[in-house]
Amino acid sequence: MRIARALTVALVTAGAFAACTNSSDSEANDMFFSRKSPKAPTTVSASVGAELQPVDALPAMEDARSHIPTLSCTRVAYDGSLPAPLRDADRNTATPRSGYVLNGPGDGLPIALLNDGDAFRFDAWQLTQPEEPATRLDNAVDAAQNSWAGFYLVDAACITDTLMLLAVQYYHPTAKHALYTYDVAQARFTKIADVDPGIPNKDRYFEYQALGPDSAVALYYTGRTRKAAELYHNYFHHFILFGPDSPSGTELMKLGIDTGNATQWAVMEKTLYLHALDGRDAKNPKEGDYSLDLSAVLK
């Protein structure tokens, strides 16, 4: 059994990063570059109580960030097998031997979420000191994880003072991606949605803006599609709100490609502003600026 397991891990690992670049079912289905795209309209959640409105121009967004979480996430790397000393990651750090160290206010010892290249998974670890993993914590990432061939943490960010947003790559049996939160206070993982890479950056699975100590808006992508050679888009961009009343996230808007993919966005004074681009027709792309009033959900 150990030989069979080792062979399975070796085979999956060998193809893991190749699969990552072509993991979307919709992308595979469009390999012959169909000229006709299905309808993908924009829908706004009823709880928002408003509609997406076109605007003549966007306000300046350079300083839109309104809160810097006190919880910090530092990407780290290690050599050999866990437990092992941690060091700062760099651009050459391999995913199977990387992770994130979480530091927050107070005197508690930091937690690390670390990929284990030997076990082909990631876990939460308690650190006895800032650079020394000591105890692997018994936190299941997903109830279905025992049916997966493996799973790695590929991106993470601290979006509030107690909440992390995680992009997880798992193999069931091919490479797929999902978005999770990790509640530091509760030591709990929660799945948000299956996701696809963004366009044009295939290594990006989400964006976010912290709004306050316990609230943030995030954006994730689905329906990544290859329309033509070197021409990709996402059918949908999903804006979700995290807050005291929605720790698992509440969808604000499902932005369809018929409106466009969000190439720039920010929340300012309880209004979401965005620039959208529908690039399916490379010779005649459609784009526009929009706003969405969020005052009903941002108290």
Describe this structure in words.
It is built from 2 helices and 19 strands. The chain is mostly beta strands and 299 residues long. It has a 6-stranded antiparallel sheet with strand order 4-3-5-6-7-8, with no helix packed on it. A 5-stranded antiparallel sheet has the order 1-16-15-14-13. It is globular. Mean pLDDT is 85; it is low at 1-34.
- In spatial order, strands of the major sheet run 4-3-5-6-7-8
What is the overall number of helices? 2
Q: What is the straight-line distance between the termini?
A: 56 Å
Structure class? mainly beta
Measured on Cα atoms, how large is the radius of gyration? 20 Å
Query: The biggest beta sheet, please?
Result: 6 strands, antiparallel
Number of strands: 19
Which of globular, elongated, flat, extended, rod-shaped describes the shape? globular
Order of helices and strands: HHEEEEEEEEEEEEEEEEEEE
List low-confidence stretches.
1-34
Strand content: over 45%
Give the oligomeric state of the chains in this entry, treating copies of one chain as homo and distinct chains as hetero. Answer: single chain
Q: Look at the structure and give the mean pLDDT.
A: 85
State the helicity in percent bands.
under 10%
